[in-house]
Amino acid sequence: MTAPIPISLDVNGERVDAQVLPRLNLADFLREQLQLTGTHLGCEHGVCGACTVRVDGEIVRSCLMLAVQAHGASVQTIEGLSDSGEVADLQAAFRDRNALQCGYCTPGMLMAAQDWLKRQVEPDRERIRQHLSGNYCRCTGYQAIIDAVEMTALARMSRKP
Ligand code: FES
Ligand code: FES
Description:
Elements (H helix, E strand, L loop, with lengths): L4 E7 L2 E7 L5 H8 L18 E4 L2 E4 L12 E3 L1 H7 L3 H9 L9 H14 L5 H7 L11 H17 L2
Parallel strand pairs: 1-5
Antiparallel strand pairs: 1-2, 3-4, 3-5
The protein binds FE2/S2 (inorganic) cluster (2 copies).
One FE2/S2 (inorganic) cluster binds next to loops.
């Protein structure tokens, strides 16, 4: 039997020390050991984007990354982004534009949308669509999601000095 491996990482600004089996993926680690269940699992093979988290500033699919690979890393989940207020305006836009229905895809969508919003200065629907094309939604038809991200981009632009 394989022995657990000790790992240390930063999760949403707090240091975490844990013992994990080498085969445990990051999504299961976050959900089952840290109870951060905002990270959802859909396909579990890198297609749907429901499990998107940020690792050292880059969005990744946590179902494709092993927990041991996150040793020494800084991980941010939707709970971290939400609690810090970083995506408060984006969340409000999702509500206002009816960009979520069942909500299953929403944490991953918000992570991916915020990644785009941090990198872009100009709202561009086609580029928003491309950036979110790796995140599947079975409910909304995507238009409302694009609307919400565009609306947030415009609002952030107008607040820039
Ligand atoms: S659960 Fe990770 S990409 Fe679908
Ligand atoms: S809101 Fe249901 S999957 Fe997107």
